[in-house]
Amino acid sequence: MKTTVLIAHEYGQPEVLNLESHSLPTLASGMARIQVKAAGINPIDARRMTGEFKHAQLPQTFGTEFAGVIVELADANTTWKIGDEVLGSGGSFTHATVIDVPLENLIRKPQNIEWNIAGSLAGAAQTAMTILDEMGPAQSLLVHGGSGGVGSILIQLAIEKGMNVVATASEKNQQHLQALGATPVVYGEGLIQRLHSIHPEKFDASIDMSGNEDATQASLATVKSGGFMGSIAGRKLSSSQIRPVWVKRNINNLQHVVDGVADGRFDWSVSREYPFENAQEAYTDVLTGHTKGKSVLVFQ
Ligand SMILES: NC(=O)c1ccc[n+]([C@@H]2O[C@H](COP(=O)([O-])OP(=O)(O)OC[C@H]3O[C@@H](n4cnc5c(N)ncnc54)[C@H](OP(=O)(O)O)[C@@H]3O)[C@@H](O)[C@H]2O)c1
Questions:
Q1: Domain match, 178 and 286 both
Q2: Which residue ranges does the record assign to the Enoyl reductase (ER) domain (predicted)?
């Protein structure tokens, strides 16, 4: 079977991205072969493309999440069958028309969830759940960068746990934050003063999606002594008190978010859809870092 893969032979801007056709090897035991219908694009994909992160040797492939249809199973199986609609996450290979995925990474796609939503859930959902797992109990939470992929679901999960959430974003995304249930604040100069007037008490915890100095200083000034302060940005920060957080794959965490999206408890917004053939344009947009919700590649 053939697959068309998004691949880069060098680091750089989106011009380095190519679509190449490859023959797939015999499907290995424990794996399912998936015809991809939709695959979210995350900032990490664009940051690997530019070489900011060099996680893999060149040439490199991209994409950590997907939704699609099982077209082949390596072994006799009582849980899965050909034609099942699934979603999940993998390494960095899901921006391709056909992919091979370990069975333990799959969950069933609820019928009432559209492909573009199903294909963009796994990365941000599991990251947000990892943050809450590592944070531990908290009553109040400050989110720096709450309007993007991870922040949008994190706010809803935190509110589900009974937390009071204050979140930052640019001016244009303030309403989006409010609709998610957070108290919105504009990031940038004067942030600490704005936080003091909106939330005079110290926060129990903060999480930073941006990695910038304003966010670091605001956390140090507004989180109570001993409170959790984390960052998922993967950038060098000026304070060692802000703990780096890295996503952990956890199928139960993913199922929790998928169930909530399927039954309407959680809102999941896809802001931009791109045909797979337009991947260069999609990566250009994701590089700007100002999305509302998720960006998704869709496949015919
Ligand atoms: N550590 C991990 O395991 C892990 C996992 C997933 C993601 N990440 C990283 O986490 C970051 C966020 O991911 P994402 O998918 O949520 O990205 P995203 O969808 O691009 O969202 C970025 C968010 O940051 C906000 N932002 C932009 N500039 C900011 C600033 N100066 N101060 C505060 N907030 C600012 C944006 O708000 P506006 O649009 O309103 O400007 C938006 O809310 C990315 O860098 C990604 O690579 C890490």
A1: no
A2: 12-297
Q: Over the stretch 137-161, which tens digit does the pLDDT of each residue have?
A: 999 999 999 999 999 999 999 999 9
Contacts from 113-117 at CB under 8 Å and sequence distance 24+?
A: 113/258, 113/261, 113/262, 115/37, 115/38, 115/67, 115/298, 116/38, 116/270, 116/273, 116/296, 116/298, 117/261, 117/268, 117/270
Look at residue 300 in the predicted model and tell me its pLDDT: 87
3-state SS class at 151? helix
Residue 44 CA: nearest ligand 1 atom is 47
pLDDT reported for residue 273: 96
Residue nearest to atom 10 of ligand 1 (CA): 233
CATH number of the domain within which 278 lies = 3.90.180.10
44 CA → ligand 1 middle, Å: 10
- Which residue, 3, 68, 53, 98, is CA-closest to 233? 53
**Domain around 128:** 124-244
**Residues enclosing ligand 1, CB less than 6 A?**
42-44, 47, 123-124, 127, 144-151, 168-170, 173, 187, 209-210, 212, 215, 232-234, 245-247, 289-291
pLDDT over 90, % of the chain: 94
177 C-alpha to ligand 1 centroid (Å): 14
Q: In ligand 1, which atom is closest to the CA atom of 169?
A: 40
pLDDT score for 91: 87
Residue 292 has pLDDT above 80, yes or no: no
* Count of domains observed in the chain: 2
Distance 30 CA to ligand 1 centre (A): 34
